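Morning. Coffee machine broken again, so started the prediction first thing and wrote up yesterday's gels while waiting. Chain of 104 residues, entered below exactly as on the submission form.
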Amino acid sequence: MSDKYGGNTRRIVVRPEDMRHNRALRLVEQRDGDVIVTIIQDGMTIGLPDTGNSSDRSSTVEFCLSGGRSHRTLAALKLLMDAMEKDNAERPIAGQEGGDEDSE
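Came back before lunch.
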């Protein structure tokens, strides 16, 4: 998949929150097994300079398979991705956005 992650993406899953549909949780699983967790609002990552939001804090964190110290957390995030995919398929939210990544 060609994307902003250097073509290293295995899958991207986005699920809007229940209260405000302009905010969502985005999980990106890279080909090396790492998972990047991001909170997005209005299709943009919260906390990045180009979003107009606070530039000193980012809402993106990464958990690594190789050399990582959070193997249980990483496994749980992959299960969360599975759950989000099922929710998106079975209970889509009107106006659901995919975020600022390239389409799959």
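The helical segments are 71-90. Going to sketch it on the whiteboard this afternoon.
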